[in-house]
Protein backbone atom coordinates (compact mmCIF):
# COMPACT_ATOMS: atom_id res chain seq x y z
CA UNK A 1 0.00 0.00 0.00
CA UNK A 2 1.36 3.41 -0.95
CA UNK A 3 0.44 6.71 0.65
CA UNK A 4 1.65 9.99 -0.68
CA UNK A 5 0.86 13.61 -0.24
CA UNK A 6 0.64 16.10 -3.03
CA UNK A 7 -0.02 19.80 -3.32
CA UNK A 8 -3.19 19.50 -5.33
CA UNK A 9 -4.83 22.88 -6.03
CA UNK A 10 -8.23 21.61 -4.88
CA UNK A 11 -7.43 19.38 -1.91
CA UNK A 12 -11.10 18.69 -1.09
CA UNK A 13 -11.76 17.44 -4.61
CA UNK A 14 -8.63 15.27 -4.55
CA UNK A 15 -9.55 13.90 -1.11
CA UNK A 16 -13.03 12.93 -2.37
CA UNK A 17 -11.55 11.31 -5.47
CA UNK A 18 -9.13 9.22 -3.42
CA UNK A 19 -11.83 8.21 -0.93
CA UNK A 20 -14.32 7.37 -3.67
CA UNK A 21 -11.75 5.10 -5.34
CA UNK A 22 -10.88 3.31 -2.08
CA UNK A 23 -12.44 0.29 -0.40
CA UNK A 24 -11.14 1.08 3.09
CA UNK A 25 -10.43 4.38 4.84
CA UNK A 26 -8.49 4.95 8.04
CA UNK A 27 -10.66 6.78 10.56
CA UNK A 28 -8.66 7.21 13.76
CA UNK A 29 -10.28 8.98 16.67
CA UNK A 30 -9.66 12.67 16.95
CA UNK A 31 -9.05 14.78 20.05
CA UNK A 32 -12.21 13.21 21.44
CA UNK A 33 -13.15 9.55 20.95
CA UNK A 34 -15.32 10.19 17.88
CA UNK A 35 -14.13 10.13 14.27
CA UNK A 36 -15.77 12.40 11.71
CA UNK A 37 -13.72 10.67 9.02
CA UNK A 38 -15.75 7.52 9.64
CA UNK A 39 -18.93 9.17 8.37
CA UNK A 40 -17.16 10.63 5.36
CA UNK A 41 -15.89 7.16 4.49
CA UNK A 42 -19.38 5.63 4.73
CA UNK A 43 -20.80 8.44 2.60
CA UNK A 44 -18.20 7.72 -0.09
CA UNK A 45 -18.97 3.97 -0.01
CA UNK A 46 -15.83 2.97 1.88
CA UNK A 47 -15.37 0.75 4.89
CA UNK A 48 -14.05 2.87 7.74
CA UNK A 49 -11.28 1.49 9.90
CA UNK A 50 -12.22 3.24 13.13
CA UNK A 51 -9.27 3.18 15.52
CA UNK A 52 -9.95 4.20 19.08
CA UNK A 53 -9.62 3.26 22.72
CA UNK A 54 -13.29 4.16 23.20
CA UNK A 55 -15.94 3.92 20.48
CA UNK A 56 -18.65 6.58 20.29
CA UNK A 57 -21.28 5.39 17.86
CA UNK A 58 -24.84 6.66 17.45
CA UNK A 59 -27.97 4.50 17.29
CA UNK A 60 -26.17 1.38 18.59
CA UNK A 61 -29.53 -0.21 19.34
CA UNK A 62 -30.48 0.08 15.65
CA UNK A 63 -27.19 -0.09 13.72
CA UNK A 64 -24.82 -3.07 13.67
CA UNK A 65 -21.66 -1.02 13.31
CA UNK A 66 -19.39 -4.07 12.97
CA UNK A 67 -21.30 -5.00 9.79
CA UNK A 68 -20.00 -1.86 8.03
CA UNK A 69 -16.86 -0.79 9.93
CA UNK A 70 -13.70 -2.30 11.26
CA UNK A 71 -13.65 -1.29 14.92
CA UNK A 72 -10.01 -1.48 15.97
CA UNK A 73 -8.79 -0.96 19.51
CA UNK A 74 -5.48 0.80 20.03
CA UNK A 75 -3.85 -2.51 20.95
CA UNK A 76 -5.14 -4.20 17.75
CA UNK A 77 -3.60 -1.93 15.11
CA UNK A 78 -1.23 -4.65 13.92
CA UNK A 79 -4.26 -6.83 12.97
CA UNK A 80 -5.52 -4.36 10.35
CA UNK A 81 -3.71 -5.87 7.31
CA UNK A 82 -4.95 -9.38 8.16
CA UNK A 83 -8.54 -8.20 8.64
CA UNK A 84 -8.51 -6.17 5.43
CA UNK A 85 -7.05 -9.05 3.42
CA UNK A 86 -9.61 -11.46 4.84
CA UNK A 87 -12.49 -9.19 3.82
CA UNK A 88 -11.05 -8.71 0.33
CA UNK A 89 -10.40 -12.41 -0.22
CA UNK A 90 -13.84 -13.48 1.02
CA UNK A 91 -15.70 -10.74 -0.85
CA UNK A 92 -17.47 -9.80 2.40
CA UNK A 93 -16.30 -6.21 1.96
CA UNK A 94 -19.09 -5.61 -0.59
CA UNK A 95 -21.76 -6.64 1.95
CA UNK A 96 -20.23 -4.18 4.40
CA UNK A 97 -20.31 -1.39 1.82
CA UNK A 98 -23.92 -2.21 0.90
CA UNK A 99 -25.03 -2.25 4.55
CA UNK A 100 -23.14 1.02 5.10
CA UNK A 101 -25.12 2.65 2.30
CA UNK A 102 -28.43 1.44 3.78
CA UNK A 103 -27.45 2.82 7.17
CA UNK A 104 -26.16 6.05 5.69
CA UNK A 105 -29.45 6.80 3.95
CA UNK A 106 -31.59 5.81 6.93
CA UNK A 107 -29.57 7.32 9.80
CA UNK A 108 -26.61 9.42 8.71
CA UNK A 109 -27.99 11.89 6.19
CA UNK A 110 -29.48 15.12 7.54
CA UNK A 111 -33.07 13.94 6.99
CA UNK A 112 -32.35 10.39 8.11
CA UNK A 113 -30.75 11.52 11.36
CA UNK A 114 -33.55 13.96 12.14
CA UNK A 115 -36.17 11.29 11.45
CA UNK A 116 -34.36 8.77 13.65
CA UNK A 117 -34.18 11.30 16.49
CA UNK A 118 -37.85 12.24 16.04
CA UNK A 119 -38.83 8.56 16.10
CA UNK A 120 -36.86 8.02 19.28
CA UNK A 121 -38.42 11.06 20.97
CA UNK A 122 -41.95 9.99 19.98
CA UNK A 123 -41.50 6.62 21.68
Verbal overview:
It is a single chain. The chain is α/β, with parallel strands linked by helices. The protein has helices at 11-20, 36-43, 80-90, 92-108, 110-122; strands at residues 24-28, 47-52, 70-73. The protein has a three-stranded parallel sheet with strand order 1-2-3. Helix 4 (92-108) packs across helix 5. The relative contact order is 0.13.
In short:
The chain has helices at about 10-20, 35-45, 80-90, 90-110, 110-120, and strands at about 25-30, 45-50, 70-75. Helices cover about 50% and strands about 10% of the residues.
Spell out the blueprint of helices and strands.
Layout: H1 11-20, E1 24-28, H2 36-43, E2 47-52, E3 70-73, H3 80-90, H4 92-108, H5 110-122
Parallel strand pairs: 1-2, 2-3
Helix pairs in contact: 4-5
Oligomeric nature of the chains: single chain
Question: Low-confidence spans: pLDDT under 50, at least 5 residues?
Answer: none
Q: Mean pLDDT, nearest integer?
A: 90
- SSE topology string: HEHEEHHH
- As a percent range, the share of strand residues is 5-15%
Q: Strand order within the widest sheet?
A: 1-2-3
Intertermini distance: 47 Å
Main pleated-sheet profile: 3 strands, parallel
- Give the number of DSSP strands: 3
| Number of distinct helices | 5
Structural class: alpha/beta
Radius of gyration: 15 Å
User: Could you say which overall geometry the principal axes of the C-alpha atoms support?
Assistant: globular
Which percent range fits the helix content? 40-55%
